Fold this protein.
Amino acid sequence: MTAFPLTAAPAASDPAVSSERFLAGMRLFAAGCTIIAARHGGVRAGLTATALCSVTADPPRLLVCVNQKVRAHTLIAASEALSVNVLAHGQEAVARRFAGMVEGVAGEDRFQGADWVERVTGAPVLKDALVGFDCRVAETIDAGTHSVFLCRVVDVQVAAAPVAPDPLLYFDGHFAKLA
Ligand SMILES: Cc1cc2nc3c(=O)[nH]c(=O)nc-3n(C[C@H](O)[C@H](O)[C@H](O)COP(=O)(O)O)c2cc1C
């Protein structure tokens, strides 16, 4: 695993930025909501995530950042695969389940009430997602509390509807839709 240089000394002239101020800034970054899901040895887990970034189109690569404490992290590391499921605005309830916002619903129970399929890697892909990216992990970077998974996209499931529904956004601590 490559290590992200978190401990590199800042330049003496750089002001210190607290985590609180950083988070206050990030709250104002509107992001699309996804479910990152994985399967290993018949066990499934997933989490709601906004830390997704396209890296290159040629070849197709994306990266996601996953807290090392979440259940799915172990499954992603073991299977070296994951899916990234981009949610539509009507799927806020799914986002809440996978964010741990529904009391008593964790692990496998989060997958109930929606259709999940396997495509290439075996990671669960949400059938009704706006887009489902099926990925193999090419490289893992240890970034302290989180791992950055650099992924090879091996399959893309695009919503069949002629007009794509609005995406589910997250902004300033709230789920939101395009105005
Ligand atoms: C809008 C939103 C975005 C999130 N983005 C991420 C993310 O990018 N990476 C991450 O590790 N956790 C993220 N989380 C937190 C996880 O969804 C949450 O901790 C989840 O319950 C973890 O799964 P677990 O309970 O199985 O450990 C996000 C939560 C919300 C509500």
